[in-house]
Fold this protein.
Amino acid sequence: MGIEQGKRTRPWRLVAVGAIGWGLFTAVVLHIISSHDPVYDTLSSYTVTDRGDGMLAASVLSLAIGSLAVLGALHVAGVPLSRTTRLLLALWSLGMAAAAVFPASYPEAPDPVSGEIHLYSCLVAFLSLPGAAISLLEPLRGRPERVLVVRSLRLTAAAFALFATSFLFVRLSEAGVEPFAEISDAFPIGVMQRLLLLADVVLLGTLLRVATRVESAADGRREFGRVAVQAGHPAGVQEHHVLVRGEAAVPRPFDQRGGHLAAVDRVEHDPLAAPEEA
């Protein structure tokens, strides 16, 4: 009987998908009921709205909780997470949470201190998530999951470049630089910010998929070794042989320290063991 793969990360994946999905659903509802213009108005402006007051904060907090669950899934799956990766993923979640707790400042509800905290929290968050994904590239070198992360990073980098360009044009337009008043209309900041947020959600989904695939691969290797032993190999030295053969045939799993499975790395053939019978 085969083992049930993905069992360890399932609770984390359910929380992540549920929280991120609820955050996106709340944001969509807010866009429908609010009178803000999603093309030119940033998401932060929805803190002051005629309908749906508080929904933006709830949406962002839900996204932050789901992001922490993604971190938990990566850890449980055995994906090699350095301190940098963990810190950056935590900063992304904390940055989003701080942006929700400290809303942006607008003339209708002025609060300069809260506005500054909100601005820098968003900046830290949007820089931290791609940074965390980049820090995973080296530990995932040689594994198929690395390709998934690279593709998502390219999408996020393109979205971030568009948003940064739009933000710069808006700032220059507000400063009275004449040409940029018209150019900024071609890069509506509301659209660009939403594209960036969607790209970040895709990146979170990719990290969750990486956790699932790494865990499934590790479970498959354990099942392979168990079935081989049950097929007639005696315990002891023969079991070590099965592990080594399985290790050679399939990429080795990671331990929690970012290396390979410690128990497998220490397996050695006993030169004094009796020869195997045909």
